[in-house]
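Dear all,

This email documents one entry for the complex benchmark we are building for the journal club exercise. For each entry we list the sequence lines for every component of the assembly. Then comes the predicted three-dimensional structure of the complex as a token string, followed by one or two observations. Please use this as the template for your own entries, and keep the labels exactly as they appear.
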Amino acid sequence: MFQRFFTELRAARVPVSLKEYLTLVEALDKDAIPPDVQDFYYLSRAALVKDERHLDKFDRVFGTVFKGIENTADAVNAEIPAEWLRALTEKFLTDEEKAQIEALGGWDKLMETLKERLEEQQKRHEGGNKWIGTGGTSPFGNGGYNPEGVRIGGEGKGQGRAVKVWDKREYKNLDDSVELGVRNIKVALRRLRKFARTGAADELDLDGTIKKSAREGYLDLVLRPERRNSVKVLLLLDIGGSMDSHIKLCEELFSAARTEFKSLEFFYFHNCLYESVWKDNRRRHDEKTMTWDMLHKYPSDYRVVFVGDATMSPYEITYPGGSVEHWNEEAGAMWLQRVAQIYERVVWLNPTPRAHWDHTPSIQVVREIIGENRMFPLTIEGLDGAMRELSR
Amino acid sequence: MRFEGTKDYVATEDLKVAVNAAITLERPLLIKGEPGTGKTMLAIEVAKAIGAPLIEWHIKSTTKAVQGLYEYDAVMRLRDSQLGDARSADIANYIKRGKLWEAFESDVRPILLIDEIDKADIEFPNDLLQELDRMEFYVYEINKTIKAQQRPIIIITSNNEKELPDAFLRRCFFHYIRFPDEETMRAIIDSHYPGIKARLINEALKIFYDMRKVPGLKKKPSTSELIDWLKLLLTDDVDPETLKQRDPSKLIPPMHGALLKNEADVMLFERLAFLARREQRGGAS
């Protein structure tokens, strides 16, 4: 019945399964709601979306698929520059209409008509509610937000009909990859857990005691080691220079990681990993750790997490002496390769947006060394993927 | 049997639809939302509204899924048998019923609240899949299948501390309680303190929403905190005029302890007040 809705949702990467779709159909079958589009929206949302991160995507798809079911005239809520409107007047209104407008004497009326025209136009070309923003044939070819824009169909219209709920997109800021706080990071980091019982046996094993007692015929206490998160993490953070703009994000990640992992080791580097790293950034020139020592000290079952924008001149990675701060005997690429060879599980978290990666050569170089699929953006989504990669 | 909100609980339209769909289809309803938006209250109020008994199962980090079904007290039985108690002959005497069992055996259709499911171990929801789906489980010790007489209405709350498995989510209806807008908030306040002075509400809400907008707050004040704060204002009979004073030096509202629960947040506000004061002095000279 609503198969297009279902496929569109899946196309928009809202994870909907057949079971959920059938639930929705069943609910409609049992008349769970009165036949009203608003209620249908609420019902389908409750049945199909299971995570608030997807609510915004859902709203958008709902708006596209069910456009026209309700009177949409009031739903248009967009910014259109005034000069476009004036230019369009010539194109869309007949002389008669222009005269009518004169007669009616209203810019408001003019906009009303224009709006209707634009609705039609949009349906022919785009069929969606994103008619400002894309599409070569639409008159709103490359439109976007314009501070001088005229608000069409806004509050001032006064017919008293409400803008549709789903077009308000109230869940916009719940979309993932937007918000990243310490708590969210912790939740993401929790994916990387591997419980193991190691160390001194100091916890009473009740089940074991019962079993043993029953067999032996007397009370025989069984002890076992406590369950601990046995994951070991080596965190390598890029600091200074271009990383300054991401400092808050890195601080949050760092504080979350410290509480989440019992055995966490961290070191700083600048731009690219070279022969030395340091733990205290203020004394980076006095208290250095040789990278060789670090690689020897931490065995290969450590999981390595790089945090850095990997944005620099490619020479800083590929050539000896390429470092901006000192003379490095061996190229940074060598050091990165060594890390990638020694440790099986390596990821790189990059705070620069995913879209910029392809245009930054140094990011490409780093990705080639540590593995194409091992660099993740520093967002909740990316962090999630990174932790999955590490726990695989 | 439709849920339309109660006089103590203001339910938005979408919440009502979700609750009623869950009741009609007999599927669990998963409720998420900011802390203090009334997730747990919802179950209590739904029970009240449709006159069903409420069975509450509060989840802790140590809670195991089987505890909701039943527990076999082997230690007690061992002890009894050593003391020669005749009770120990029958294993059924040592089976303790869990909340789910209780809900399944209830004569009237009950409401089962599984509170803060995310507190438990990651595998917890997976262990309940079959039980929630078929509404039955098997007790090995006494060789008996417990089947629900009526499928209970199950309301599950989560604070998003852990992600829930997809298989579990597919079986639920989901509702995310958004932070109430001003209009809903007024209705909520009205249901708690009918006849409160409109001027007091106006000023208090203004301060409250301004406070939520301050960037960098560690914990934003929520609905339940607003309600507590209003109660304090009422018992102390604070004049709306005091709230209205937009004197920057009094940027921290009276009784702020009810709203700000974190010393870092209080410090932040004090610092803002200090800055505002300095700015004012600078502007005057």
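Observations: The radius of gyration of chain B is 25 Å. Chain B touches chain A through 32 residues (CB under 8 Å).
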